[in-house]
Amino acid sequence: MKTTDLVKVRNTLWAAADELRANSKLTPGQYRDPVLGLVFLAYAENRFETIRSEVEAKATARNPATIADYKAKSVLYVPDESRLSSLVNLPEGQDVGKATDEAIKAIEEANPELKDILPRGYQKLERSTLIELLRLFAPLPTQLEGDAFGFIYEDFLSNFAAQEGKGGGEYFTPYSIVRLIVEILQPFQGRVFDPACGSGGMFVQCAKFVERHHDSASRKLSVFGQEKTEDTVPLAKMNLALHGLSGDIRQANSYYEDPHNAVGAFDYVMANPPFNVDKIKKDQLAGDKRYPFGLPKTDNGNFLWIQQFYAALSPKGRAGFVMANSAGDAGHTEKEIRKQLIESGTVDVMVAISSNFFYTVTLPVTLWFLDKAKAGTPREDTVLFLDARPIFRQIDRAHRDFTADQIEFLANIVRLYRGEKVEISEGSETQLKENFPDNKYVDVPGLCKVATRAEIEAQGWSLNPGRYTGTAAVDERDVDFKGNLEALFEEFTQLSDEAEVLRSKVDAAVRGIIGA
């Protein structure tokens, strides 16, 4: 199918499905999982039908085709009753919801690896809504190719996340942010880890990166994830399956649990963790090797996440993750942890992103990149700071993203800094020539600056790109009020403690003098 046709199909499908939801009594959250389950069934039927004639051609009366024959082709076996073409043609009056739940049960029984992945509860949907959904998705197996289903699944995840607002952002990181992280991280092969994996978008974009470089993601990548919310784990597993990936995704609270024995185990770490989380039980973290620089006193989880990402890296590993802006300038115990991280020589690239890229927060964020392989290279004592806040495409009043050429341009700045060959397939050549006419990295005021460790120390160990690139103006609406308030409260608490100690010393000294 042509790209233009696929775009039309994707838009038409969402518009139709969304209209059905709007005319039902369901919230986006209630509607999401059943719809994604039907996308999955359509994909499974498509893959099954693609090789069915080949498998059956080799079968005989004595040796009929078996489930194992399909598994040998890396295809799910789809029983007759699990095919959308069967469900949409059920006799009038039959319980469609019950039949759809039984279709899910049958495909899981034929393919045990799907156990607890696919959604249930189709009997709870209004009959008219379910029938229309089946009619919407039933033609897809014969109309689309395998990759198209992955795009449709991503579209639906993104659109549901937008409708659900803050709740949706907990399982979905916007595509353009993930793509930028992947392009800078460059996960060509190895073990990839996301301890806050949501619906698995980081893994999918890693796979697409490998495929863009003409290799097989299933052969080159092994993916491992953790996700706190039980209902989100199946979304990730379905997402992987729709993109031809398998992975080890566990339900776990990453602050306290480490089911993958992560320390030093991974070539790449990617994540968009929750920001500024409070009330973490730090007494349960004492002695945990995932926090090598110590526990922050402030009631904020940002530097617990940052240490987890650092600790999970193998000796040559790279990490790329989203973080609240306040972490770059936080003081006292958080500053001490940040100083140790910088002194380890691992911090490689910092990218400031403007506001309105995320569903969870409207505030700007910073992308952090760590690289343990920097040791012994010309970059060992430096950090590249990129201020990408002026770079974006305005989608609507409340949302922004990056275009493909903007992502390529930002990633190319990093490639020049690393001494690597640039890529221009997405159209970033003009921007490169304007800013780097000799095709070599140079500091560009307001855009990028390579700072030495001494310069960073002189800035109070700040990792705020604007301090280095010369971009001073900050919109008051873009201030991380909660993060800054927590930092000020920690400073106030520390000063109060010091004042109390000083008061006791003065009191003791005065009493000694007057003989009291």
TrEMBL record:
GO BP terms: DNA restriction-modification system; methylation
Domain N6 adenine-specific DNA methyltransferase N-terminal: 10-134
An annotated Gene Ontology molecular function: site-specific DNA-methyltransferase (adenine-specific) activity
Pfam families: HsdM_N, N6_Mtase
Ranges where the DNA methylase adenine-specific domain occurs: 146-476
EC assignment: 2.1.1.72
Enzyme class: transferase
Catalysed reactions, semicolon-separated: a 2'-deoxyadenosine in DNA + S-adenosyl-L-methionine = an N(6)-methyl-2'-deoxyadenosine in DNA + S-adenosyl-L-homocysteine + H(+)
Keywords: Methyltransferase, Restriction system, S-adenosyl-L-methionine, Transferase
InterPro entries linked: D12N6_MeTrfase_N, DNA_methylase_A-5, SAM-dependent_MTases_sf, T1MK-like_N_sf, Type-I_RE_MTase_Subunit
Highest taxon of the lineage: Bacteria
Similarity comment: Belongs to the N(4)/N(6)-methyltransferase family.
Protein name per its UniProtKB record: site-specific DNA-methyltransferase (adenine-specific)
Source species of the chain: Neomicrococcus aestuarii
